[in-house]
Specification:
about 40% strand; elongated; Jelly Rolls; mainly beta; four-stranded antiparallel sheet; 3 helices
């Protein structure tokens, strides 16, 4: 399994509103936008008598060096402290950071950059407040990592934000942005070392993609 480190990361806190749809989609009066954030950031759906509020995290990886077919991948995120109800988050496709990592996180990324129809991970239903959390990536994510030089996603609350349904739960996770977020992946194809090099780090053998190689020199 090979690993690449995150290239850009950020966090946006949405506006507080008594209306669920306004809180979820509005880009007016956002409380915070950060790029390359350190410390902690929250992914949250919160509501009380004062209103409703969403928070989302945004991640960008440079995947230009990955050209082979992936058989599996996951993203590791470390918990950054006590959460309210540390459950039910999911990664979805995004065009934040300009879509190619070339610009800073913008207020317009809060909602307009999100593609709720493309889940990049399975739902994570438990979250360690101080340990590592592994998001398993979907087939859509694996394809985009292979085919695109840029892999951008958002972590959003699942039960209300992702489903666009105002649930009664109040949930949030806290991310430790001081610990490097990583993308770990395994390439499909020939599954053995070649001249001492792990298969996950080999894209081609004698110019042939490993994804279509079953044997090398008959082995």
């Amino acid at each position: 399994m090979a690993t690449i480190n995150i290239s850009r990361q950020g966090h946006i806190t949405g506006a507080t509103s008594g209306n669920f749809n306004t809180a979820r989609t509005s880009e007016v009066g956002l409380a915070a936008v950060t790029d390359g954030i350190t410390g902690t950031g929250t992914v949250q759906y919160y509501h009380s008598g004062r209103g409703k509020r969403f928070q989302r995290a945004f991640l960008y990886f440079d995947t230009s060096g990955i050209t082979g077919t992936l058989s599996a991948a996951h993203i590791d995120v470390k918990g950054g402290g006590i959460s309210g109800d540390p459950n039910d988050t999911i990664m979805i496709k995004s065009t934040a950071f300009g879509g190619d990592g070339g610009t800073a996180l913008a207020t317009s990324d809060f909602f307009l950059s999100l593609n709720y129809s493309t889940a990049y991970s399975t739902e994570l239903t438990s979250f360690s407040n101080s340990g590592n959390n592994e998001y398993t990536l979907t087939a859509a994510a694996l394809a985009d990592i292979k085919n695109n030089d840029h892999f951008t996603l958002a972590i959003v609350e699942h039960d209300s934000d992702y489903t666009n349904s105002d649930q009664t739960n109040v949930s949030d996770i806290v991310i430790d942005f001081d610990t490097t977020i990583t993308l770990d992946y395994t390439l499909a194809g020939y599954g053995n070392r070649v001249n001492g090099v792990a298969s996950a780090n080999i894209g081609k053998i004698n110019g042939v993609a490993t994804a279509i190689i079953s044997k090398v020199n008959g082995v």
